[in-house]
Amino acid sequence: MSSEKKEEFLEIYRNNIQRPGADRLLNYMLSEQSDFFEAPCSTRFHGSYAGGLTEHSLNVYYCLKDYLSRQRAKDVYGMNYSDESIALVSLLHDICKMNFYSVDYRNAKNADGVWEKVPYYTIDDKLPYGHGEKSVYIISGFMRLSREEAFAIRYHMGFSGNEDRNSIGNAFEMFPLAFALSVADMEATYFLEGKPRT
Q1: How far apart (Å, rounded) are the C-alpha atoms in residues 94 and 35?
Q2: pTM > 0.90: yes or no
Q3: β-strand pairing of 115-123 with 101-109
Q4: What letter does residue 158 receive in the DSSP assignment?
Q5: How far apart are CA 33 and CA 22, in angstroms?
Q6: What is the pLDDT of residues 29-76, one digit of tens each?
Q7: Which of left, alpha, beta for 40 (phi over 0: left; psi -120 to 50: alpha)?
Q8: Which residues are registered as beta bridge partners of 108?
Q9: CA 179 – CA 61 distance, rounded (Å)
Q10: 101, 94, 82: which is closest to 188 by C-alpha?
Q11: 172-196, pLDDT tens digit by residue?
Q12: What single DSSP character describes residue 192?
């Protein structure tokens, strides 16, 4: 990952997330116990490269900011959230992927038809606590989340996750930030980070 993306993430985080415990969480993310800034975002889909998690988190941040900046979102839907809430839910929604992947090797033929060992990412889940709920759990160990922030992070996978469909719909109706974060996550995943379009 480029150091520019890491610095961009750190600047947004430090300028916006100021509640008690935010500095302790960031220190943990920067420590040797964490691979957040080196981690991929998936094993073979979007962001499946070193630093992919950081880049995806930034993409979701910008998509969410853009979505919530629409006058309709503010006036009709009542989506008025602080810069802190927007940064927190977008930058940290996938913190569950920290220390989640490891590198393994498999045999594959190179361009010359010769077998060689090539690295690939595999899942090594040391804290099997789900996806969105694991992110909420990790963050809550350092700082308090509002109820809406917690639900937004918990349900950011929307209908593409494994959750009960009724629960997702109810969460979206009760906590509009959950819907907005889900839209931003899908936009980043499928339009910014998906396969190149022709």
Answers
A1: 13
A2: yes
A3: antiparallel
A4: G
A5: 17
A6: 999 999 999 999 988 777 889 999 999 999 999 999 999 999 999 999
A7: beta
A8: 116
A9: 14
A10: 94
A11: 999 999 999 999 999 999 999 976 4
A12: I
